[in-house]
Each structure stands twice: as structure tokens, then as C-alpha cells.
Amino acid sequence: MGRFFTILILILIIGGVIYLYPRIEWSSPEIDIKLKSENVGVKPIDIEIREKGKGLENVTVSLIKDGVESVLVNKNYPDGVMGDRITVAIDPGRLGIKGGPAELKVSAEDKSRIKIFSGNETTVTKKVNLDLVPPTLEVLTTENYINHGGSAVAIYKTSPDVVKSGVKVGDYFFPGYKANFAEDDVYIAFFAYPYDVEPGTNITVVAEDGAGNQMTSGFPFVLKNINYRDSKINISENFITGVMIPLAGESAGASHKEIFLKVNNKLRKENNAKIQEVASNSKDRIMWKGPFHQLTNSQVEANFADHRTYIYNDEPIDEQYHLGYDLAVTKRYPVEAANNGVVVYAGPLGIYGNTVIIDHGMGIATLYGHMSTLDVKVGDSVNKKQIIGKTGQTGLAAGDHLHYGVYVDGIAVRPIEWWDDKWIKDNVMLKIDQAKAEFGTKSEKSVEKTQNSSQ
Question: Could you tell me the sign of the dihedral formed by the alpha carbons of 314, 316, 317, 318, in that order?
């Protein structure tokens, strides 16, 4: 009888081992709480959990404040997963908590049965400081007259804890830059009221601290409507063959209509995205001075934000906006920089052909397209009226001319404003001078010291 029980026990042990062995692993889940600082507010927190073995069983995220633990997330995984990314938001009203020291605790258990009834478990805690007080924000510019599709400037003051601020117009965001004022927390934000934003859209100034707390303020303005032109452009077979096909790249078997749409639509979007990327990476100081220079002896042949309908074989096949001016002079005419700045792009750019983009500081940039030759390279400092190349017929150009554009943080705006000395004085310099009178300016020595310490 004793022998029977011994054999039975051995069978049960062997059976248990056979059952449990495939369910056993030795590694524990890995937890990464993605915090940039110890200050935590209403801004969501991302937590990444990775598993190497049998998959996750459950994850619990909690906040410990004043000895009370509040569960923020409790997530189970019936089928097991090899990883998850959880976004957690702290709602102080629901939790009934105030600011101050706290702990964020994350526990993750896998599906291993190394402990028979439970798996490997990892617990990570991080000390945080609950910062639930939004920053302060005061808008200093009060009278603002803006053209639809045009540019504007906002000057505002924040509390020292602000890490991100700027102006929102619809879905567009334009960052603010710390200016050369004696007080560190006064910002200048150049922004656009884009041509494709509906009139009546509000403008707000936004300031955010390191914990994600935000403060917003309305921005008083009067919007002037601008009537942009509509035009129809007939597309010929010769234009597609001579201009479009070389730009289309690999298009074997594509019809002429498909080639046109690939260039005029898809490539145009890619090029405009590149312009926005380049033009939004701007120096944090104003490099330009006075009105921007219009190409000498040039005439405007195509306006900003012209709405164009393209006709092919008597059929409308595409619609686009022309985001600049076409300036005509004579063939291979010397192209002058519109103002002082630094070259941030010089080379081929799809439909714009050989292109130069100059950063003038604080988000302002100019673009020169369809050029035949380029006389500058990325990183070059240029002065107003300096020759940067010659006009041409590269890219999507039917004839020799210069495509000229002005951008605010990568968003195309009306160039004519920046050519107008009175507009610049009334809408930009007057506001900056008023802020200088109120807050003073830093000496050149202190500015240089600040710039060197931030590098």
C-alpha cells in the first residue's frame, strides 16, 4: 500500500512538472515610467511595459498621496500580450487630492506559474511632486488688425515655470520665443491667420508648465477679409511630357492623368511638408531689419493663395492653392535675398525646383524657387539684397521666373505685408517698441552670455 502511494505521488509530481514547465519563465516584466521631471500635473503620463516570456497577466497603476493609495488603472490581459503602453491621467478633483509630494506606483505580473498560483511580478515606484497650479499668462498686445492669410505678432508675459508657449489659430500652433527684454519671461510669437482657416476662428495664447498644466488667454483682434482669386489652368500633353514626367520619377505604366496627380498633388504635399519642417526650425532672435526686399524690377504674375482648378481633356482633375508670388523679370535674372538671415535649405525641392530657404529668425522665413543656379549653401549668412543665385525654369515651372514665398513657422503667408514698411512699423515694430519701453532690453553683453550658457 505504501508503495502504491509512493508511485501515485511520483506520478502527480511528474504530471505537475509536465503541466507547469511550459508555463514557467524566469524573467520578470520590465516597466518604464516616462517622466521628463519629477513634476507631475494633469498632463497624461505614458508607461511602457515589456514582457519577454509568457505574456502579461495584469498591470496596476496607483498614486500614493498622504498615505492613501488610489488606483488609477487596473488592466487585465486574458490572452496575454508581450507589451503595452498605458496612458494615465491624474484627476485631482475625482481623487480629492492637492499638490505636493506623492509616489507613482506601477506593478506588472506575467503569466508564468513559477509560483504555481502567481507569476513573476515587477513593481516600480517613483517619487513625484504634484504640481496642479497652472502658470500665469498676460497678453500685452491689445489692438490687432489681421488680414485673412496674413501675419501678426503677439507679445505676452508668463510665470517662470513655463516650458512651452505660443499662439493657436484653429489647429495651427505658432511657438513663442523669449525676446531680448530685461525680464526673462516676456515672449514674442509671430503667427499667421492662415488662408485655409475659416474667418471667425478664435485666436488664443497658450502657456504650459513642466507638469503639463495649461493657461490660455483670448487674443483680441479684428480680421480683414481678403478676396483670393479663382483661376482655371488647362494642362496640355506637352506640359505633362516635358515638365511632369521628369518630376514623377518611377511611373511605369501610369497614365498622363495619374502622372499629373502624382506630381501636382502627392509631390506637392511632400514638398510643402519639407518646407514646414525646415522653416519651423528657426533661430530665437530677429535677424531681419526693415521691410523685406522685392526682387528688383520684378512684376507679380501670380498671387498668393490663388485657388487653381486644373483642367485636363476638358475635365477638372485637381485643385490647389498657389502659396507665394510668381515674380517675372528676364531670363536668368540675379535673385536677391529679401532680408538678412541664414540659409537653411539650398538644393532641389520637387515642384519648386532648385530652391533656397532663408531663416530670418523667430519663425520668419523666405523661399526662392525655380532657380537655375544657386550661389549659397546651407549655413551661409546673407544680407538683404545679396545675390543668392539666378532665376530659372526648374521644377513645375512653365517659364523662367522666381517663385517667392514668405512663411511663419512653416505656414505660407501674404508676402506683400512684409514688403510694406508701414505695415511692419504699425503691426510689428510698434508692439515690440512698446514692450521694450515697459520691460527694458538686455545689454549686448548679457545677451551673449545668455546665448553661450544655453548652448
Answer: positive
How far apart CA 241 and CA 339 sit, in angstroms, is 37
Element (H, E) at 402: strand 402-408
CATH number of 137-226+429-435: 2.60.40.10
Looking at domain 230-413, its CATH class is: mainly beta
| Domain range 27-130, its CATH number among 2.60.40.10, 3.40.50.300, 1.20.272.10, 2.60.40.1240 | 2.60.40.10
Is residue 173 within 8 A of residue 190, CB to CB? The reply is no
Please report, in tens digits, the pLDDT of each residue of the chain (455 residues total): 566 566 656 655 555 444 444 445 558 899 999 988 888 888 889 999 999 888 999 999 999 999 999 999 999 999 889 999 999 988 888 888 889 999 999 999 998 865 555 688 999 999 999 998 999 999 999 889 999 999 999 999 999 999 999 999 999 999 999 988 988 899 999 999 999 999 999 999 999 998 889 999 999 999 999 999 999 999 999 999 999 999 998 777 899 999 999 999 999 999 999 999 999 999 999 999 999 999 999 999 889 999 999 999 999 999 999 999 999 999 999 999 999 999 999 999 999 999 999 999 999 999 999 999 999 999 999 999 999 999 999 999 989 999 999 999 999 999 999 999 999 999 999 999 999 999 998 754 333 343 333 33
Q: Smallest Cα–Cα separation from 195: which of 53, 275, 303, 76?
A: 303
**Grid coordinates standing for 190?**
509671430
Q: Do domains 27-130 and 137-226+429-435 have the same CATH topology?
A: yes
Give helix then strand counts, H and E, for the chain: 10, 32
Contact yes or no for 181/436 (Cβ under 8 A): yes
CA-to-CA distance for 153 and 168, rounded, in angstroms?
12
- Spatial contact of 208 and 131, defined as CB atoms under 8 Å apart: no
Domain ranges of the chain: 27-130, 137-226+429-435, 230-413
Please say whether the beta carbons of 17 and 23 come within 8 A.
Answer: no
Distance CA 319, CA 407 (A): 21
Buried b (16+ CB within 10 A) or exposed e, 361-400: bbbbbbbbbbbbebbbeeebebebebebbbbbbbbbbeeb
Strands (E) located in 251-340: 299-302, 306-312, 315-322, 325-328, 334-336
Model-level pTM? 0.83
449 Ramachandran zone, left/alpha/beta (phi>0; psi -120 to 50): alpha
